[in-house]
Specification:
Rossmann fold, EC 1.7.-.-, single chain, alpha/beta, Flavodoxin_fold, 104 residues, FMN-dependent NADH-azoreductase 1
Length: 104
């Protein structure tokens, strides 16, 4: 009998709180991850710290680059898209996305 190879479920945890030690959303995400690791011990888990890292805003160079074919982009436009391209790739690779956001 043929069975497909086990596919690892990739988890991406997006932390959006600027707080680190007193963040309730981080605690909830950590609780989820702890339970997930018990159930799916071999799942790779990636973290993206949106509340701590400096995430650039969309600007004129980003907009120009986003609507231009890759081969026509200037170096400035390529650089403007680099971080958002990285974030989008992380989202595409994830099977499970955990959004840990403050409730304001």
């Amino acid at each position: 009998m043929y069975s497909e190879p086990h596919k690892q479920t990739r988890v991406l945890v997006l932390n959006a709180s600027a707080r680190t030690t007193r963040s309730q959303s981080r605690k909830l995400a950590e609780t989820f991850v702890n339970h997930w690791e018990i159930l799916c011990f071999d799942s790779p888990i990636a973290y993206r710290e949106l509340g701590i890292e400096s995430v650039p805003h969309i600007n004129e160079a980003w907009i120009s680059a986003a609507f231009k074919p890759k081969e026509q982009r200037t170096e400035e436009e390529v650089n403007a898209l680099a971080i958002s391209d990285k974030y989008i790739e992380e989202l595409k690779q994830a099977d499970v996305i955990v959004l840990a956001t403050p409730n304001v």
